[in-house]
Amino acid sequence: MSNLVQSAKGALLLGAIVALIAVAATLFAEPFYQRIVFIFMVNLIAVIGLQVFMGNAGITNYGHIAFMGIAAYTVAILVTPIAIKKTALANAPFGLAGMEFGIWTSVAIALLVTVVIAFLVGSMLVRQTGTPASIATLALLVIVHVVIMNWVDLTRGPRAIYGVPVKATLGWAAFCAIAAIFVARLFRDSRWGLQLRAASENIAAASAMGVRIKRLRLAAWVLSAALLGVAGVLFSLFVGTISPRSFYFDLTFLTLAMLVVGGVYSVSGAVIGSVVMTVGFEITRYLENGPSLAGIKLPEMFGLTGVFLGVTIVLCMILRPHGLVGGDEIDEIWRRRSQDRAAGGDVS
Amino acid sequence: MLQLENVHVSYGPIKAVRGVSLEVKGGEIVALLGPNGAGKTSLVSSVVGLAPTSAGKIRLDGADITGEPTERIVTRGITLTPEGRRVFADLTVGENLQLGAACRKDRDGVAEDLETYLELFPILRKRYAARARMLSGGEQQMLAIARSLMSRPKMLMLDEPSLGLAPRVVDQIFELLHGLRSKGLTMLLVEQNANEALDLADSAYVIASGSLVFGGKAADLKASGEVMEMYLGLEGH
Lengths: 348, 237
Description:
The complex is a heterodimer of chains A (348) and B (237).
Chain A: H1 2-28, H2 31-57, H3 64-79, H4 82-88, H5 103-125, H6 130-150, H7 152-155, H8 170-189, H9 191-201, H10 203-208, H11 213-239, H12 249-262, H13 267-288, E1 292-293, E2 296-297, H14 304-319, H15 330-342
Antiparallel strand pairs in A: 1-2
Helix pairs in contact in A: 1-2, 1-8, 2-8, 2-11, 2-12, 2-13, 3-5, 3-6, 3-11, 5-11, 8-9, 8-11, 9-11, 12-13, 12-14, 13-14
Chain B: E1 2-11, E2 14-24, E3 29-33, H1 40-47, E4 53-60, E5 63-64, H2 70-76, E6 78-81, H3 93-100, H4 107-120, H5 122-126, H6 137-149, E7 155-159, H7 167-182, E8 186-191, H8 194-200, E9 203-208, E10 211-217, H9 218-223, H10 225-232
Parallel strand pairs in B: 3-8, 3-9, 6-7, 7-8
Antiparallel strand pairs in B: 1-2, 1-4, 4-5, 9-10
Helix pairs in contact in B: 3-6
């Protein structure tokens, strides 16, 4: 099918950008910046995962980071060495305190748990549309957070789990990000993705066509959760220490801002939004600490990153409501514009 | 082909259709007429499972399809072109046409039909890769009809295809429907444009306030001055 070839080409273009960033970071960057690039890759996967559901189903999602948290905690609890568990998770239920799993087994189980929970939650969630559905996703985020905070035997509650083996590398993160781009792009342009996008634009017409909207929404929801699971696993295995705060509102709104600024309706938007927001965020973080620029000592400005996030979203909503990229993928933009022009200006 | 027996459609306490029975025979064009709010849209929506049938039976070729999910009914060969040119404005003409075949699994057949309809609607071929929003009103209605045909229906239900179109464009649409009839497509045509619809139709039904007030040959309806005047606001011939 020619349109799948086209979307693979588009994914290749975006993947090349990500690969370039990863290679440049590996060759030239200091460890501090490599760390930033790794976190960028994790956030990118999360944003792409968010795009898969939000962009195709047209439902604002505030609960995506819950799946990242579930996967991160699951892999951490499984893979942490028994010696560390003796002090950190001595009372873990299901005999987990005395068990230690291999890295791949842990990753597989973590992703499986994430997908199963996503399926159960999604089966209920897809019956709703619009704001009620969005509120349900927000509730999911809060519920997962509360469970992690209070199931102290399993998660250490508000205290961090430490001693997770640091196994993830920048190479793996970049590979997963590129794979996520391909998955998201192929889903978007597939028959299913097209039907789902059509339904989010005009639910009455899509229903008349016999599109199975709930089923497709569920598919997008579960696929989205799986990608967020990958992001969570990478985060856990790179940082080595996780706490409930890592998977709550801060990350939710950061990833949402990345997607909205880039453009919800395309994978290109997810990638470009992540790049732009990460660069902007790092610059404001640098300014926040009051550095000296050209001999002038700037004051410390705590909270500047938050201001940056808010101002960027507001400006974006005013100036480019569909995000920097707009509704189309970057490889489609030129093609579409020329076709629209050929169709003439008789807009009705 | 399609039989409705005493069909009721209710939205909670509101009764939109109160016991309508009608029949569409294979190869026929049936006009469903009536004033605004008479329940025409509710009735055709209930046939494809988009509105709740609270009582009565809907049969397609003898099989009871009452309450079946839309995708099953579309697969059985009956498709609704909804009111108001509901094209997917942000998607391309080509994507719109592909979506019409959402319930079909035969890829070769879909490709074949696509070619057929691009032949029948040259304007859609010309604007295949353009977004549907760039089309004129009449072109969008052509696209909506072609999209419905992509499901390869035995019977097509059209809800107000002439709504909001210029008279010249309305003529084009009716010409197109004439052409589809000669290909043997069965049609149920919901219209406010009673004269044009009756010229095309073999038989006609008139509903008002959810109930049937006339059912018979289109020519008889045209001759019946009383019904024409009372319910359709037209002079009888």
